[in-house]
Design goal:
alpha/beta, Glutamine Phosphoribosylpyrophosphate, subunit 1, domain 1, Rossmann fold, 3 domains, binds fructose -6-phosphate
Length: about 625
């Protein structure tokens, strides 16, 4: 899973490519490279292991001749470690053809053996170089027609790929192909762009085209031509990017994550926009499925990581408001166990990027078996929504930090809107109930802002004191349980600390053995007003762990006096209905994980071994 960018036009391409790669670095950041056809028509290339900064420094130290046609790549290693040689681009046809790739070519070793037997030599361990060499040979067979060469090669490749290539013989031309990996076109004036997503070119144009599966695109400064793999012209969907480049910049914040947590109120607010009518929820994008909603007998939510925890929160709302049973499945487990799916099944996928391969494959699998599919997604033009029957976009804006924060609250918001829409259509949610829920949802952004204002400094202090902590446990019940899991995941990935989220009731069935004096435990306490029984149970769980020496940090509603004497620290959240507490309780957890990572001196935006968009299975 990598970021790719291509440019043709009148301007020097290196700065455009490097700026595009900087915005795509969330997709992978273990090596980077660019290739450019210079003013003399020669193809030059530079690539380096390490983050984009290493490549930039290298180019500053020793310039590469610039030109107006170029491609660039930022890598997340799959085949072959993160070395200079394995970085992209890869060259072929006597170094006159440059190729970059996102995805995995599953049959690369068979193809490589065949090419080695035919006398070809390789300079890297990557699957990409195999595609480059194949393309070089096909180019010669196709007598110098690069698009035709692509057509001949794509049929031989199995797996997922977006490939971009350019050839010294054709300055002013970049050709790309996609299968199960993202690629979008940016339309400029006398210039055109290609990118893994619109962030690659949004500072130059907001006018874009989404390319479908199994399609090939050729861009020149004046033209964009899209064909299918058989060479037939196809129509492509134009769309307008609704955010600008400044939304993807840090804008003075210490990190993208700090900015994105601060944007959590806005992410919720924007996701509600245009969907509330007369105190009820109507999602226009879902209306074509209204008839199907009345006939479904179950919902399966498929997602990974944080998005799956959002799904686990959403389950409570869908079951309660739409009265339909919900299972939440990790997308990568879903299709390997022969699940029972039929036309009465609705599969709801959740994905910030819209490109997570595990989730995409689960959606395709469900569709092939007759299920209806709804995508909850944050990225316009992404693959998963395009493969689904209906889309509910979360309007969280671009999320750049690798770990998801504002998208999580937007996903829960979208799931709640979805639950209310389906509940209304199924006759399960009347206008009065709906109005109450809408009022609760509309109040959430303000409440999140209050938490950030009141608690951020104290949470940062707490995190600072805990810099040397080696393990943190998280406990929750009911909707607090997925929030405990989310808190633990964020801490693992950002602060590299062992962390586990448990259902509080599960403690006595085993995990309580982990409690020893000084063990920090963060407990999400339900409201005593709204759920007295659950509240009492969680308070008694706190007593159990306190008795064994745990250091308890409670996240509790304002005015919950019962929790005060039991906890070492209490972080307060404003009053909310039981299903709306997760949208508040998660905020201190996001801040805590970010603060602990920062106090350990770690890279909070780009944690080790991870990438933002996981486009491999
Ligand atoms: C964790 C995180 C990941 C993603 C997961 C799914 O902070 O960001 O767990 O939630 O990889 O990604 P999307 O939502 O893009 O499908």
């Amino acid at each position: 899973m990598c970021g790719i960018v291509g440019y043709v036009g009148p301007r020097p391409s290196q700065a455009i490519l490097l700026a595009g790669l900087a915005r795509l670095e969330y997709r992978g950041y273990d090596s980077a490279g660019i290739a450019v056809i210079d003013g003399d028509g020669d193809l030059g290339m530079r690539k380096r292991a390490g983050k984009l900064g290493v490549l930039r420094d290298d180019l500053e130290a020793t310039a590469l001749a610039d030109g107006t046609t170029g491609i660039g790549h930022t890598r997340w290693a799959t085949h072959g470690g993160p070395t200079d040689d394995n970085a992209h681009p890869h060259l072929a046809d006597d170094d006159r053809l440059a190729v970059i790739h996102n995805g995995i070519i599953e049959n690369f070793s068979e193809l490589k053996s065949e090419l080695v037997a035919a006398g070809c030599t390789f300079h890297s361990e990557t699957d990409t170089e195999v595609a480059a060499v194949l393309l070089g040979r096909a180019y010669r067979d196709a007598e110098g027609d690069l698009t035709e060469a692509f057509r001949r090669v794509v049929g031989r490749l199995e797996g997922a790929f977006t490939l971009l290539a350019m050839h010294e013989d054709h300055p002013g031309l970049v050709v790309g192909a996609r299968r199960n990996s993202p690629l979008v076109i940016g339309l400029g004036k006398d210039e055109n762009f290609l990118g893994s997503d619109v962030a690659a070119f949004v500072e130059h144009t907001r006018s874009a085209l989404a390319i479908g599966q199994d399609q090939i695109v050729a861009i020149t400064p004046q033209a964009v031509t899209v064909t299918d793999f058989a060479g037939q012209a196809v129509d492509v969907e134009p769309f307008e990017v609704t955010w600008d480049a400044s939304a993807a910049d840090k804008g003075g914040w210490s990190s993208f994550m700090a900015k994105e947590i601060a944007e959590e109120p806005e992410a919720v607010r924007n996701t509600l926009l245009g969907r509330i009518h007369d105190a009820g929820v109507v999602i226009g994008e879902l209306e074509p499925l209204d008839d199907a909603f009345t006939r479904i007998s179950r919902v399966i939510v498929v997602a990974c990581g944080t998005a799956a925890y959002a799904g686990a929160v959403g389950k409570y709302a869908i079951e309660q408001w739409a009265r339909v049973p919900v299972d939440v499945e990790l997308a990568h487990e879903f299709r390997y166990r022969d699940p029972v799916i039929g036309p009465d099944t609705l599969v709801v996928s959740i994905s910030q990027s819209g490109e997570t391969m595990d989730t995409l494959m689960a959606v395709k699998y469900a569709r092939e078996r007759g299920a209806r599919t709804v995508s909850i997604c944050n990225t316009q033009g992404a693959t998963i929504p395009r493969e689904s029957d209906a889309i509910v976009y979360t309007h969280a804006g671009p999320e750049v930090a690798v770990a998801s924060t504002k998208a999580f609250v937007a996903q829960i918001t979208a799931l709640y809107l979805f639950a209310m829409h389906v509940g209304r259509v199924r006759g399960e949610l009347d206008a009065a109930a709906s109005a109450g829920l809408v009022a609760e949802l509309e109040a959430v952004p303000e409440k999140i802002s209050t938490i950030i204002e009141r608690e951020q400094t104290r949470i940062e202090q707490l995190a600072h004191w805990m810099t040397d902590t080696r393990s943190v446990l998280f406990l929750g019940r009911h909707v607090g349980y997925p929030i405990a899991m989310e808190g633990a995941l964020k801490l693992k990935e950002l602060a590299y600390i062992h962390a586990e989220g448990f259902a509080a009731g599960e403690l006595k069935h085993g995990p309580i053995a982990l409690i020893e004096p000084g063990q920090p435990v963060i407990v999400i306490v339900p409201s005593p007003r709204e759920s007295a029984l659950l509240h009492a149970k969680v308070v008694s769980n706190i007593e159990e762990i306190r008795a064994r020496g745990a250091r308890v940090i409670a996240i509790a509603e304002e005015g919950d006096a019962a929790v005060l004497p039991k906890a070492d620290e209490v972080l307060r959240i404003p009053l909310a209905g039981p299903l709306f507490e997760p949208l508040l309780a998660v905020v201190p957890l996001h801040i805590f994980a970010m603060a602990l990572s920062t106090s350990k001196g770690l890279d909070v935006d780009q944690p080790r071994n991870l990438a933002k968009s996981v486009t491999v299975e």
